[in-house]
Amino acid sequence: MIPYNSQHTKYRIEWLDRGARVFLIVRHLLLWARAVVVYPLCNTNVYSSATLPKPLGRYISLFSQQFGPSFHLAEALAQFDPPSTLGDYLNSKQPLADQQNKAKVIVALLRHQLIMQLHRFCYIVPPFSDAKMPRAGHHCPDSLKTQIAACDNIDETIKPIVSDLCGSMLDTQSFSNVERKLSLFLRMSAYMHGMHHIEDIVYRLNVERDAVEEVLESFALVLCTFRRPDFISE
Prior knowledge:
It is a single chain. With 234 residues, this protein is α+β, with helices and mostly antiparallel strands. The chain has 2 domains: 46-113; 122-229. 49% of the residues lie in helices and 12% in strands. Strands 1, 2, 3, 4 and 5 form a 5-stranded antiparallel sheet that branches. The longest helix has 25 residues, at 7-31. 18% of the residues are buried. Residues 1-13 have low confidence and may be disordered.
């Protein structure tokens, strides 16, 4: 055990204090709209032109200095009206150097709030009336049913459908794989009420984005998704 007054503890407390101050400053900058959050670039990210258009005069000069006199800001902005994915904008058929330069353009446009990311939010809802339902009463192991029943974030009318989905998945997948996806789905359910986007869920649960996407696909029957800006970061 390290004594409280040891040099090690002193440095640790000072480090934690500095870290807390940094987060406090960042929080204030976001709340005062003096900073924006730029989430990691991903080919499936959807971007749209800003809802509050800005005079482009000074930005044209700024972007020309950064990306060369041949860069056309209006042409770049037109790529995201209507909204478009990053993958479509980068175009994998183009040379890698061009794709890397376009990625830098995206970051610059986001920093200056000339475009914004449309994040995906989810709700857990009953299936639509014309949805293709899994076979009712499809065998679902009691251990999985117990986990579903214990979840307070899912409506009682939806839980039987989740059980049927798990039973249906067991026809083609191993029990461990279905249990893993169900466990993550139940953890995610606390954040699927339209207030937390996918990137936020990935961060809060400390899981891979691919795992979250897999769960969303597996339980799509009881999910409703929509896209909008992250109002805090935008």
